[in-house]
Design brief:
The structure is a single chain. This protein has 262 residues and is an alpha/beta fold. It has helices at residues 12-15, 18-27, 40-52, 72-79, 103-122, 135-144, 160-168, 185-193, 223-234, 238-253, and strands at 2-7, 30-36, 56-60, 87-96, 127-132, 151-153, 172-175, 199-201. The chain has an eight-stranded parallel sheet. Helix 3 links the parallel strand 2 (30-36) and strand 3 (56-60). Helix 8 (185-193) packs across helix 9 (223-234). The longest helix is centred in the middle third of the chain and has 20 residues, at 103-122. It is globular, with a radius of gyration of 17 Å. Bound molecules: nickel (II) ion. The site of nickel (II) ion has 5 residues, from loops.
């Protein structure tokens, strides 16, 4: 059993054929999906999908690139769903400095990140963290505003050295397609060094297709390629990895692990 802990089935690229996408994933053993929102519409759609499909859960929140112009009313509307039992995380939230140079916009991202961590803590939810080219600020915010119900560094892009800082905050490490890229040295080192009980896998589909599918529309079924590569670099059996990742994901998101009943 495999849990894709970060996918955007609510993205138009996948949503228009969601049944087929989920069937494809089930064929390779994916039986749980965390559908992650990035703004109001995508968050509300993630909740709809989670209600419609028992295998799906929702993460809701405002991505740092989607905060400009959001009204307080829309923000509160999304947050009002945090106690929905199928909403298991707040995300994706964080900092993205890739396209942003303006210090005022950076401050704005920080405010939104902090504000959303507070809501997660208030509603006892873990967070899914998006961090792009903002590692130092991201870590400082997390240290000063600790996520009390854990969370995941989605698509972890940091070094092996920084792993400890993230793990000290009680967070999990999410690995995605980049771990399979032939020229990706750091993600492979991270996959090798991260404690297995702190690792989860994600596709971030429709983005970040793993090797050799780079450039195509990604789907949760491709998570198999990510797991293969993790098993290879760790020199552990696929079964061992899959079992551990599934347990971690259920623990992180407070979802019952039906394997315990067997
Ligand atoms: Ni994402």
């Amino acid at each position: 059993m495999i849990f894709d802990t970060h996918c955007h089935l609510n993205d138009e690229a996948l949503y228009h054929r969601i049944d087929e996408v989920m069937e494809n994933a089930k064929k390779v053993g994916v039986n749980k999906f965390l559908v992650v929102g990035w703004d109001k519409e995508s968050s509300l759609l993630a909740i709809d999908i989670a209600h419609q499909y028992p295998e799906c859960y929702a993460a809701i929140g405002f991505h740092p690139c989607n905060i400009e112009g959001v009204s307080e009313e829309d923000f509160l509307d999304v947050m009002s769903h945090l106690d929905d039992p199928k909403v298991v995380a707040l995300g994706e939230i964080g900092l993205d400095y890739h396209w942003v140079q303006d210090p005022i916009l950076k401050e704005h991202q920080k405010e939104w990140f902090i504000k959303q961590i507070k809501y997660a803590n208030l509603h006892q939810k873990p967070i899914s963290i998006h961090n792009r080219e903002a590692f130092a600020d991201c870590l400082n915010i997390l240290k000063e505003n600790r996520p009390l119900y854990s969370g995941v560094m989605h698509c972890y892009s940091g070094s092996v050295e920084l792993l400890k800082d993230v793990l000290d905050l009680g967070l999990y490490i999410g690995l995605d397609g980049p771990v399979t890229f032939t020229n990706a040295k750091t993600p492979k080192e991270v996959a090798q060094d991260v404690p297995l009980d702190k690792l989860v896998v994600e596709t971030d589909s429709p983005y970040l297709s793993p090797h050799p599918l780079r450039g195509t529309v990604n789907e949760p079924k491709n998570i198999a390629l990510i797991i293969d590569e993790i098993a290879r670099v760790r020199q552990q059996s696929k079964k061992h990895i899959i079992d551990a990742l599934y347990k971690n994901s259920c623990r992180l998101f407070g979802i019952e692990n039906e394997e315990n009943h067997q």
